[in-house]
Every structure is written in C-alpha cells, then in structure tokens.
Amino acid sequence: MQQCLDLFNIADEQFIGFVNKVDSYSVNIFTTDEEKLRRVNVNGYVIMHTSDPNTRLIGRIERVVRLEYEPNNYDDDTDEEKNNTNNDITVNALGTLKGPGGGRETAKFTRAVENLPEIGAKCFLLLGGYLTLFTGLIADETAKSKTPLTLGTYTMASDALAILDGNAFFQRHAMVVGSTGSGKSWTVAKIVEQVAGLTNSNMIVFDLHGEYEPLSIHPHIKRYRIAGPADLDNPNEDVLFLPYWLLGYEDMLALILDRSDENAPNQAMAFSNAVIKAKKEELTKEDMQKELETFTIDSPVPYSLDDVINDITELNEGKVQGKNGLINGPFNGKFNRFLPRLASKRSDRRHGFLFSLKEEQLAVNYLDYLVESLMKANTKENEGVKIIDFSEVPSDILPIVLSLVARLVFQIQQWSDSSTRHPIAIVCDEAHLYLPNRLAADAAEARALAHFERIAKEGRKYGVSLLIISQRPSELNTTVMSQCNNVVALRLSNQSDKNAVSNLLPENLGGIQDQLPTLGVGEAIVVGDSCLLPSRIKIQEPEYKPNSGSVKFWEEWSNAENEQNLSLAIKNLRRQSSANSDG
After folding, report:
1. What is the mean pLDDT of residues 368-374?
2. 95-133: burial string, b at 16+ Cβ within 10 Å, e else
3. HEC profile for 511-559?
4. How far is the C-alpha of 152 from the C-alpha of 158, rounded, in Å?
5. Which residues contact 89 (CB under 8 A, 6 or more apart)?
6. Which of 111, 334, 355, 516 has the fewest other C-beta atoms within 10 Å?
7. In Å, what is the CA distance from 451 to each residue of 129, 252, 545?
8. 98-119 confidence digits (pLDDT tens)
9. What number is the average pLDDT over the span 413-430?
C-alpha cells in the first residue's frame, strides 16, 4: 500500500512543469525553470495528473527543447528588453496508473490510455526510488506465474528485474533482432535455458551453425544432428533422418522439378500418380485398411522411390502399337531430364538424410520415433528442449528441410486431441536465410514460406509458437513479421533494418527506433504484449553460453602460439564431416 501512496504523492522536487498541449497520444509540458529542465532526459519516464484524482498518466519523454524569445514589452525603468525562455518537453503517453479502489486493493498499471491530462495538470519525473517502485509494480503485474520469464534488469533502474509475461511472449509469437555482435545469441540462450527449467517445457531450436551445442549440457536440453555424409552408414543415437516420404507433394516437386522444363506438367502428373500407387501398395502390405480408405498424396506414408522411378521410366520408354508397328508412346522421352535430375539428388551424399535410408527409416513406425524425439515434453525420461543442428544441410535445400520439421510439428498439433494438446515453441535462428520476402523467394523458399506463414497466422489456435531470430529484419518475410507481437530489438545500425522494426511498433512508440543504434552490447529494447511498458533492458548472461562470440582478429594475429590445423580441415572438407580428430 505504501508503494501506491508514494506513486500518487510524489515529492515536489520531482515536479518539472505543467501541461500546455494535449494531442491524441502526445502531451507537451512547459517549464521556465532551468534547473528542472536539466534533470529531464529523453527516453525517461514521467507521471502526470488527470481529471480523475485516482488516475495518473505514464509517459515517455521523446523530445526536450529550450525556447528563447524576445517579448514586445519593455521595462519602464530601464527601457531594456527582457529575455524570456519557455521550454517544451514532448511526452508520448504509454499507459494509465490506477490507484486502489474500484475493486483494486493496490495500484495497477495498464497500457490503455483512458484519461489524458487537462491543460495545466502537473507533471513529475519518475526517478530514483519512484522509478524503482514503478518498475516493481510493473514486475508484480507481469509475474502472474510462479516462474516468470526474466531477461535481465531495466537500464533505467538496474536493481529492478525486467520480467516478461511468458504466456503472452509465446502465445503471440516473438522476434529477437540485432546486428552481429549485439548479444542476440546470448538473449536467445537466456530464453531457452529458462524454458528448459520449466517442469513440462516443450521447444525446438533450429540451430543452423551448431552454435547452441554448449546448451546441451543442460539436463533438460537434448541436441540432435541432421545426418551428414559421414553419418549415413553408422549413425549415432543423436542423428536424425528426415525421409523424403515426409515431404508433401508440392515440397517434393519444388526439390526435384524444373518448372522451366516444357514437360514439367507431364512430369508432375506422372510423379503424382506413381507416388499415390506406391503409397497404396505400402498401406496394403501393412494391412492399414482405415488409412487406405482416406490417405492422400500428402499423407506421411513411406513408399519406395525405386518403384516410383521404375513406373516413370516405363512411361519414358513406353511404346504403343501403331499402324505400321510399335511407335513412341505419348510420354516417351518426356522425362529425359527429370529422371537424371532425380537420380542426381539421390546420389548426392549431402542429401543422404533424405534419400539414403535404411529399413528402419522406411518403416511406417519411423514417424512415431521422429515425432516422439521432436515433440515429447519434458519428463524424467525426456528432455523438453530439443536443439536440432542443421549445419550440414546444403543451403539450397535448407528452406525445404526446415519447413518439413515445422510442418510436421504443426500437423501433429492440429490433429491432436484439443483436451490433451501440449503447446510447443519453434525457435527459428537466422530466419532471414529461409524466410525471405516473397519477391526474393525461389521455388523451394516459396514452399517453405507457405508453411511458416500458416503457422504464424494459425499456430496460436493449435499451441504452436514461433520465436524468430535474425540479424537482418529488413530481409524477413513481412507476413511472418507482422504476426510477431513481441519484439526484442538489440543494436541495429542499418537504416532499412531500423525501419523494418519501427513498422512493427505502435504509432506512439515509433521514436524508439532512434535508440537502436545507441544500444550497448547486450542491451535491448523490449516492446509488445508480453511487457506492460516498452523497456530498455540489460540482458543477463546466460548460464550456458553459445559458441557465437566474434573472432578477435587483432588479438589472434598477435598470438604466435595459435596454429591452425589446416590438414585436419582439408580432411573434414573431403569427408564432409566436422570431425574433431585426424584419425
């Protein structure tokens, strides 16, 4: 209660001036006191009286201007002009602070701007102990659960924890953006390790460069690797295959079909018919009658790619009876480019996780194993957070592969019983590499975008959340970005990137973009549904630090003892395996 009284009865020394202009969401304060003006800092916070004595308006200082003018009146005694000053402080309204009463036992802050101040209303600075009290109130409002999401401390009040609403953060998707070296990976690691500490956590991290491997030391984090060329013959337990039969029809065509080929429509039709036939044969062999009655070409049913190729080869070489003997069939030669292209994909060991499958990956129950590995929530026997290392996946098919995992997660959630459905979050690291703008997307990226856009728009209904990580927000898909209602923005200096972030902010917070280039390493602006107050936060160091530190060129060049093992690198290059020894 004392905290409420203090906030509603601020000492006179915090007074800075009176309201002299009120707009839809901005307020102007004037003062003639030079000492008071010196205490006012841009991006600081103020509290203003309103017509309701039990309500105060909270605002952020956007601009401070010192105006000096010469009036037309003269002193009768000296006949000299008097110089006057009128200083203007522009404040953006952020929310309303309501005192006890009306069913409230304590003060409560809300983002709604319900009462604007009247002309002549008093305005006070939120500094020192008052600021700490206010941030503590924000933390109390946000910390609804026993285990709130904490990123660090407020820059404006270093002794106050910056607490986010974990429900709102993941329910409405989130985005972490920042230039290289700004502390982006540490921020992600801080979030991931907190999720891992929850009793029934469930999260998948797309790790494109293997930088989150150190987090697997955490007892509730499991790391998997997508099979590389060196894993195809004797894979370890942490190696995952993503069989081609999990790809949807359009996804498979984006991978193997050249749309510029004049025979592409015939190739697509023949491939479709051959796949349906192969899946039907597999379901019949497995005596899966119910599935046989309802399956479609996109149903995740194993099928023999050899059988599909044999059927298409027969069409390509087919002959029919003519008047004077056998002549070429209607599809003869139509697949002369398609078949070698498919054979090339299958023979490329970099694509082995898709095509070089053993009997267990071609079994119907492999899907059960894969889903259990990816989506099983945290228990005594299972780790809730799964890091998937995609570092050995070729970049040209990376979007298709990542969207395969995302689509599988979404479909399992979609077809789960709503009463037992368990929420899951997908962390999309380096998202600009596979979630580009539509105009910049090729065929494979366009198919991947379709899946991620659907998750962004519909995922909340089925308990699927996206956490988008990127150093180039200006290159991200606008549909996905527009669905991210929480933004953690670290230092950004590129103008196009700053504009992309500012487009996601409410109109009265647009000035925040001007702070982005000035943020220190590990500092972030947090805006969105998960925080009651747009805040500048100093991110705490994660306990498990990712391998994302920038190389210290000058220091390394100055160190004569560090010699690079180039011969080992050459062996790894030839083997297409990041082995740690030269054995």
Report:
1. 94
2. bbbbbeeeeeeebbbeeebebbbeeebbbbbbbeebbbb
3. HHHHHHHHCCCCEEEEEECCCCCCEEEEECCCCCCCCCCCCCHHHHHCC
4. 9
5. 16, 17, 28, 29, 30, 31, 37, 40, 61, 63, 64, 65, 123
6. 111
7. 49, 14, 31
8. 887 766 677 888 888 887 888 9
9. 93
- DSSP label of 430: T
Which residues does residue 27 pair with via DSSP β-bridges, in sequence order? 22, 91
Per-residue pLDDT tens digits for 475-509? 999 999 999 999 999 999 888 888 888 887 765 56
Q: What angle do CA 528, 532, 536 make, to 5 degrees?
A: 70
Q: Residue 165, CB half-sphere, CA atoms under 13 Å: how many? A: 20
Cα separation of 20 and 86, whole Å?
11
- Average pLDDT (529-548) is 86
Query: Domains plus CATH for the chain?
Result: 2-142 (2.40.30.170), 174-243+359-408+420-450+461-548 (3.40.50.300), 252-340 (no CATH)
Q: Which range, of 101-110, 175-184, 326-335, averages the lowest pLDDT?
A: 101-110
Is residue 168 within 8 Å of residue 486, measured between CB atoms?
yes
Q: Confirm if 213 and 386 have CB atoms less than 8 A apart.
A: no
Tens of pLDDT along 17-53?
A: 899 999 878 899 988 778 888 888 887 889 999 888 8
8 Å CB contact between 29 and 162: no
Residues in the chain: 583
**495 vs 474: CA distance, rounded Å:** 9
